[in-house]
Specification:
By secondary structure, this protein is an alpha/beta fold. It has two domains: about 45 residues, no CATH class; about 90 residues, TIM Barrel, CATH 3.20.20.120. Helices cover about 50% and strands about 10% of the residues. It has six helices and four strands. It has a four-stranded parallel beta sheet with strand order 1-2-3-4, covered by helices on one side. α1 packs antiparallel against α2 and α5 packs parallel to α6. The two termini are about 30 Å apart.
C-alpha cells in the first residue's frame, strides 16, 4: 500500500500532490506509533531517543508595517534576554517591497547585536524564485547563518 501511495505521489503534479504526501506522512507516523506501542515503548525511545532536554529556538522578525531595523533589534534583544541562543528570522519580503539588501541589512543588524555565539536561522517562506534564492544566499553567506529554509515555492518543479 505504501509503495502504491509513494508511486502515486511521484506521478502526481500540481496541488493534489501535497494531499497525497500529507496522507503518506500521517500513515507513516501512525505505523511508527503502532510499532512502538507493540513493544511497550514511547515513540521517542523506539526511535532511539535518549535526551533529557532538546535545543529550542524562537521565531520572530516578521515584516510588520511600521517596524524597521531598530524595532527588529529591540525584538531580538528581548529574545536574548529571555535566554534564547538560537533565533529564526523572516527574510524574503520581496513581495512586500523589500529587497535582498533590506534582508541583508536586517540580518546584519541582528548578527551585530547577538554576536557569533547565537545561532541565526532564516525562513524565506517560499518567497523567492531560484535565481533570487541563489543571489540572497550568496549575499547572506558572511553572516554565519545556521540554515536558510523554504527559499522557493515547493510546488515549483523547476526548483
Amino acid at each position: 500500500m505504501f509503495k502504491l501511495t509513494y508511486d502515486r505521489a511521484l506521478a502526481t503534479r500540481g496541488w493534489s500532490r501535497e494531499g497525497v504526501i500529507s496522507a503518506m506522512a500521517a500513515i507513516d507516523a501512525a505505523l511508527y506509533d503502532v510499532m512502538a506501542k507493540s513493544v511497550g515503548l514511547p515513540l521517542y525511545k523506539f526511535l532511539g531517543g535518549y535526551r533529557d532536554s532538546v535545543p529550542v529556538y524562537v521565531t520572530g522578525g516578521y515584516y510588520r508595517e511600521g517596524q524597521g531595523t531598530k524595532e527588529l533589534v529591540e525584538e531580538v534583544q528581548g529574545y536574548v534576554e529571555q535566554g534564547f541562543n538560537a533565533i529564526k528570522l523572516k527574510v524574503g519580503g520581496i513581495t512586500g517591497g523589500y529587497s535582498i539588501q533590506d534582508d541583508y541589512d536586517r540580518v546584519k543588524a541582528v548578527r551585530n547585536l547577538v554576536g557569533p555565539k547565537v545561532r541565526l536561522m532564516l525562513d524565506a517562506n517560499q518567497g523567492w524564485d531560484v535565481a533570487t534564492a541563489i543571489q540572497a544566499s550568496n549575499k547572506l553567506y558572511d553572516l554565519n547563518i545556521t540554515w536558510l529554509e523554504e527559499m522557493w515555492m515547493r510546488s515549483n518543479s523547476s526548483s
